[in-house]
Amino acid sequence: MKNIFYKTFVYTLLLATFACSKKLDTKPTQSIDQSVALKTSSDVLVALTGAYADLGTATFYGGYPFIASELLANSGELNWSGTFQSFTQINNKTIPVDNSFVSNTWLAGYSAINDVNNVLSALSVVDASKVDRVEGEAKFIRAAVLFDLVRLYAKSWNDGDATANDGVPIILTPTLAITADNQVKRAKVSEVYAQILKDLTDAEAKLPAKNSFYATKAGASAMAARVYLQKGDYTNAVQAANRAITVGTSNGISLKAAYADAFPNTVSGNTTEDIFAMQVTNSSGNNSFQTFFSANSRGDIQINPAHTALYETGDARLGLFYNSGGSRYTGKFDYIYGNVRIIRLAEMYLIRAESNFRLNTATGDAPLNDINLIRARVKLPALTPVTLTLAAILKERKLELAFEGAALHDIKRTQGNVAALPWNSTKLVYPIPARELRANPNLTQNAGY
Amino acid sequence: MRKLVTLVVFLCLISSQLLAQTQTVTGKVSDASGIPLSGAVIKVPGTQTVTLSTEDGSFSIKVPTKAKSLLISHIGQDDITVPITSGPLRVTMNATTKDLQEVVVVGYGTKLKRDVTGSVSTVGAKEISNTPATSFESAIQGRAAGVSVSQQNGKLGQGINIRIRGASSVTAGNEPLYVVDGIPITSENLSSNGASTNALADINMNDIDNIQILKDASSTAIYGASASNGVVLITTKKGKAGVSRIDLNYFTGLQKPTGKREFMNAQQYVDYFKQAGAGAANQDFLAGFYPSLASALAAYDTRIATRLTRYSAGNTDWQTAKVNTDWQEESFQRAPLSQYDLNFSGGTEKTKFYISGQYLDQAGIIVRNSLKRYSARFNVDHQMKDWLNIGVNVNFARTDNFRVSNDNAFSTPLQIVALSPITPLIDPRTNLASGALDLVSGNPNTNYPVYYNPLLSVLDASYKTFVNRTFGTTYGKVTFSPNLYFRTEFGIDQLNQVEESYNGKLTSRNSGVPNGSGAYRNTQVLNLTTNNYFNFRKNFATKHDVDVLLGTSYTSRQSDFGSATGEQFPSDSYQKLVNAATKTGASSSSTSSTVLSYFSRIGYKFKEKYLLTLTGRVDGSSRFGANHKYGAFYGISAGWIVTDEPFLNNVKWLKTLKLKAGYAGNGNDRIGDFSARGLYSGNAAYGGQAGQHPTQLANPDLKWEITYGSDFGLEAALFNNRITLEVDYYDKQTSDLLLNKEVPGTSGFSIQTQNVGKLKNSGIEVTLNTVNVRSKNFSWTTNFNFSANRNKITFLNGQVLGGGVNKAKEGEPLGVFYAREFAGADPKNGDALYYKNTPKTDGSVDRTTTNDYNAATDIKIGDPNAKFIYGFGNTVSYKGLDLDVLLQGVAGNDIYNGGGQYMSASGSNGYDNQTTDQLAAWKKPGDITAVPEARLFYSNGTDPSSRFISKGSFLRVKAVTLGYNVSSSVLKRLKIERFRVYVRAQNLFTITKYKGWDPEVNADYQASNINQGVDFYSAPQLKTIVFGLSIGL
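ok -> structure tokens follow
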């Protein structure tokens, strides 16, 4: 009996120790270790695709920052009747520091930036034939994110001294571990714009003219035009917009014949008018504009007569509005799997026209021609040199780009008002998220919060 | 004549031969005070002949004439040997040193309760069997001190929170470890609809013989890294040698919601929203949107009339409040339930078995909620050789749960209360359910009623969860000598779950998909465990008793998930994905972990009265970081049976007094399987192209949380066991809390799992059992348990965790409510006011009020943790009648109504119907009220604040059973051993100040360690009344 006892004992311990201890090294299946993620050219390419996916999350280029721009700028043209408190607060211009969309947009933006910083850190393994494109796309994404962050979370460029006002942190390296180095200070507004334009300049140089639905050379020029316009740098804005139009139109980009065709509500994919759009399919991507503006979805944002009254009689753009249950909705975003249109060609004509008009130049084309191109498409009579005023150009811009996310930023750069609030009211700037201040003591909060 | 004599002699011989073989002995068994004892085992020593005493204590047994005595045993009484005499026997048994002679399961073995030095609560079969609930935990609610049990809501098979001596973790699991017949089982939530389910609902309560709850750290230390939340040991029933039983149980009854809320009727609703429109018009005017107040009022008048017309099915019935729909009623249904049980048990000295089958058919109180469960169990134990015992316990269960959406979904039935009372159930324009059809588009309405009508999901959606569960143990026990045995156990817990959902065309407003969407999800969980251990027990020189356990254990857990979704179905007749024109998604994933352990427990007893237990365990876990693969856990505890000392010999009233103390370290390994690794995930597809992205930061230092707990207790039995008392004080310090520490979002990540936090729990527990009256025909016993736990987070690295109003914050209990302090309506203008509560330069707090939400600061507005919990049970029996009443109470906690921002929001947050208390809204300057002015969409006071806090204390008549046992004389004629009829009620009635549906609540979609005590359109608990009968053959 003793013999059995010892044998059992020894066998049990041996079995447990040697048969099982190796099994403590279980490996994840649907995820992989970061150390093996970026080993080949193909690895880096799929990481770049992943960056677009993160960029397109609902709280970022899926639409939230743009919807927030429309709601913050809303002085009665829109009616917000949704139950998402975070948007209610934004529409009411009383944003608490713990507003969840304010934190989520911040997190989503920097997540996309970390994605592309990882890509940029691994350019050395990318095939030579693709390395320029990969670098260009990565920098385009980084610039685009920083631009939307700085114009939401910091004072407008023209609000005081951009070299003194705090912008947002600039992150240019991938995060592999968390240390005190991750507690990055806010760069100045001017530094952020400089970084954005540096990235966009690199991107424009390295990107191909055609690049499927990914960022293109024209896309980088177009984004730069937007950035210069926001700075009030019309000289560079007109050049960048002109390059976007020239390169774009010679590579298949063109205005749709009818305004409504720029917002297809049954088919997915880009239209010829899209210079850059976030891809939404039934299995990836988010179209938050559809979620909030369309009566097919939540329909939380209705269009008030105050807005529709702005259109001239016969404006084809009026045809996109529709009534449902006694309320009026815009038909721009009715398709759940429609792409989120970030930059349309029409905007480039408007930027070129406005900048040329302000500079009294005619780079690319005369402002009158550009404006009338936009007006002709929506069946409106041409303006004349007499009726072509800055106000007319800005109004054309407002109606052409209505609800697409430009509203707040246009009010700020043109120094308008949101009802009783002046353009530089602190209530029209997002707070730095409360969670971010907790996690990073080096951050400062915005005035008014 | 000779023939006759021969015949007589022959007959005499035969009869004497017969008489020599058997004789019938009858008698009656009672306890020392003369109360009949039923279920006493009457046995002829050295034979297989056994019977049980009936309800009135009487028995009848055929015994060999050569038998001289009977051995009689009964739980709680000393065994007694009675000489057989002529005539009925009167057997009087004496109570043992009751409780302390019980055998207690302690993890990898058993101990006499007398020798236990830790803190263990026991719940017996009587308390848990035949409870009309889907899961056994609800049956132990209020029955064990220090064990807090709460159901999230009244949906069937939904998550249950159990906290043993408080929560010891902030982000890792807080549920105890469940061990069935020696094998840890899967207890985690596997639901994919955002509301948790309860994997323990697959256990048939009537199969449970007893539940032991190991509460203190020294008892649980034997489970090492998975022990810090306490351990629940479940032992299933076994057969008894020589007693063949057939038990048939059946009950049937009805369930109702425990409470309802009061909402406005049609007239109130119309008036109120006109008022809210006027309030908003005034604000618009003040903001400069309108040139005059009159023009603003006119604009709002029109707008509101348009909306009310829309919600009134496009007509003007709202003007006369002609339609007055009580939507709340529509979310409930008639809810019958029935349960059938058939058990067989018995065996011989060598082989014992227990076979059971159960069918439960339960309708939920919430529309389209129901649950069916079929289960079967087979337990057998066989003595192969003198030295070898083998056995198997196996359970099969099938649970079909027809579920509803989580509390946060428009389709969850109780969100129906948001609909306007002016909206008719049936839209007169279509004669279909409101919302089913828009005559213009030919599709379901998109903006009528005010929200998606959940009844459309009742008509045209389903969410089924099917679980096939097999779990069991095979074991072998080798007895080397009377002092030493080796036991090997191999356990499997296999859980296959299928979730299948379909949302038809009618639900398009909710699903966002026009022609039907479906989903199919498959989950497979396989847990394999093997335990191998030696136990050595020996007495040395009479004074020294040693009990040594030494063993190893290995557990592997593997989970596999698969899912597919599709859209565009030909019609609602086709609900399988094969019919979906567009397959919108497919996914599969898996995860796994392994644990390798070595453990030992040494018990030492000196002179039967000085007790010492040492425990040690080493756990290696795949979940932990490369730098900390193995953790060691130790415990020590000691006990002193004071009444065995000579100086207490003369204190007759004190039958037993035991003092005990223990200290140990326990771990908590319930974190993600791969939390320590830096990860990329390949789930970042874009525009049809595959993508990958970084998803998790690495932390090679990640390890278990550790709780060091001490326990001091006493157990006493007084007045001949008429009173037993247990008192415990405990203190638990948890450190290395696994926290999802907030990291700067600029890193691209929001959190990293680190071992940073500390918290503590301390408390007292009192259990008092008394026998108040014990006479021949009448007995009355009372048990009372009380526990108070104080939880406090002591270190969180300065972080505040929690996305909602519940926070984890240093210096506060886990999950305290943090928000602005509401100060009612400004008498001047009706603005919602908040106390600023900002610190002033002199260090005091600014108690002035503000209407600017941002100018006020969050303070603690409540605490979801109960100050104390208690249970109070009384059992009275008179002849065949018995009555058992259990009261359960929770006191000192708060509830936050998360739905308050919509339903009790001064009509300022949409057209949701409002609770009637909102009628008190501010109307004109000078009004003093807690309800701010109604201002449509102006969020006047709708942001999170103490406006939505209520007291959550309650006292509940948890369970009442009134039973009658038919007397044995009647049964004899019917040839039935036992026959019992009963009426049982669960949650019969509740005393509370809480105005919501039910104070036992935790919004299912967000329930977590931190998020507790929030009500969000959560279904009330079930009030159940059943009629049942038990028949024993």
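Chain B has twelve helices and 53 strands.
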